[in-house]
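Running low. Invent one:
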Amino acid sequence: MINVNQLRNGTAFSLDGQPYLVLKYEFSKRGRGNAVIKVKAKNLVTGAVVEKGWNSGNSVEDINLERKKMQYLYADANNCVFMDPVSFEQVEIDNELIAGQKPYLTDGLEVLVLFWQDKALSLELPPKLVFTVKETGPGEKGNTVANIYKPAVLNNGLNIKIPLFVQQGEAIMVDTRDGTYVSRA
């Protein structure tokens, strides 16, 4: 058992026999009342993101997720295929479980695949990846006291907002956790 006070981003736990991975942890204490722990967690079997709350001092069942470095190969209609670069063993993950991460996958990308009870359930992408701006409008000069962004389409098909000074064909770094522009590459 693990105390809910110890749940942090990336921690895995089991609730009602289902594995969860903590995406966001929040601690709040108001006045004389008990502290409340709120987490946003992803169900690794269904892919659903849920919010759970507990009073301080409660416990949840601790589970160990095995993280294996694997290489992305290709996607078919139902699954994404990953390969262990040492043993050349291939693993498939359902497209629905990684729908939010799939646009960031490029051929040969190394990711951490999360296994629970010898079944591949999810993956962890590198926090920042480099992509090329495929199409964007011109940067318009004018009253630019604050950061002004323009829409862009990247070579992976992702639509994001980029600063005015970034032009079509440039390589940029994107944060894979929230899909935002970080810097030029």
Summary: The chain has three domains: 2-62, 66-124, 128-184. The chain has a mean pLDDT of 86. The domain at 66-124 is CATH 2.40.50.140 (OB fold (Dihydrolipoamide Acetyltransferase, E2P)).
